[in-house]
Specification:
Blueprint lengths: L3 H16 L7 E7 L3 H14 L3 E7 L1 H10 L10 H12 L3 E6 L11 H14 L1 H8 L5 E5 L3 H7 L5 H15 L7 H22 L3 E6 L2 E6 L10 E3 L5 E3 L7 E3 L6 E6 L4 E3 L2 E11 L2 E9 L1 H7 L9 E6 L5 H4 L7 H4 L5 E5 L14 H6 L8 E5 L6 E5 L5 E6 L2 E2 L2
Parallel strand pairs: 1-2, 1-3, 3-4
Antiparallel strand pairs: 5-6, 5-17, 6-10, 7-8, 9-14, 10-12, 11-12, 12-13, 14-15, 15-16, 17-18, 18-19
Amino acid sequence: MINFQGQLKKYADLAVQIGINVQPGQTLVVSAPIVAADFVHLITTKAYEIGASLVKVNWNDEVITRQQFEHASPEIFTKAPTWFAGEMTELAENGAAFLTVLAENPDALKGIDPERISNFQKTRGAALTKYREMQMSDKVSWCLVAIPSQSWADKVFPEVPAEERVDKLWEAIFHTVRLDREDPVAAWQEHLDNLEQKSNVLNAKKYKKLHYIAPGTDLSIELPEGHLWAQGDSINSKGDSFVANMPTEEVFTAPLKTGVNGVVRSTKPLSYGGNIIDGFSITFKNGRITHVTAEKGQESLEHLISLDEGAKYLGEVALVPHHSPISESNILYYNTLFDENASNHLAIGTAYAFCLEGGKDMTKEELIAHGLNTSVTHVDFMIGSPEMNIYGITADGVEEPVFLNGNWAF
């Protein structure tokens, strides 16, 4: 790859300045796999150049993680990591920013007892409730970015010679985050402005319901009174902007917890808990999941919707046109950060508080009273296709096209 180190530095700069937008005197917490060390070194350098008071790095490694799930005592997965949750919550309360670097092998935990994975996610999610509530209400800045690993690149590009796969995935990632533009920062600002225009149109419409029609999908989603459509950039409690996902192509809101009815079918595999769930359908009645089927990963899907009562309801509705850069690349990433930005998607679990008027300042109980879902989890799954039509239904029953043949109707 031509000038790889130069591109890598630009990527780190973009993550620090546009993604997490580190402020002078702020603590930056980075969670990253050890294969991302070179990238994290660049992030650390840039953050300190800007004036970060401390860059704290939490390393992880998928080999060690798998060994833990294979060999650790069963009670480990049901014991709350209070030490970790306490640290993360304290850092958030003191105004830290949180940057996560992803590089997971989609099959990292293939063959592991799903109950171990489920117990771990349930226990960890419950322990981190306070931290996640701060994150989901934009009290703190947070951002997800990704770098290739050999195992992930092997999954995405099996037809490419093994020694070329990582470089090919780097090129694809650089394209999705607009590093191949002459001025990536300006390109991001233009992109975020375009997404905001779409969310402004939807916020002006104030639809009562959305009706999804596609092969295997006939789903009605009611939206709560006072719902807000959001897009790629957010504002934290101190007034600082950040971009939670890089890349991002979506506008999204929260559904009314009890207002989802019908059936929806996935259109892309879901990488969840180190396993792949694919070819699945979910049936809803009055918001609650009543039936699931999956061609692959049935047990993992069943464990997901059993994490708690909130995992049986939706927390996000997101719109992404089929004619978008990631979709048109025809690359299946097996990574939700990318695949969700190539497709309309929904999320099982907790809703974002900022998707409701005044929601950022509401208590958990107030959000529930306004119809938003809460859970220990938030898992996006992809449902979009060029065959999907979505209609917005106004409070007086008028039906208008929002998406036709997988793309914006306006």
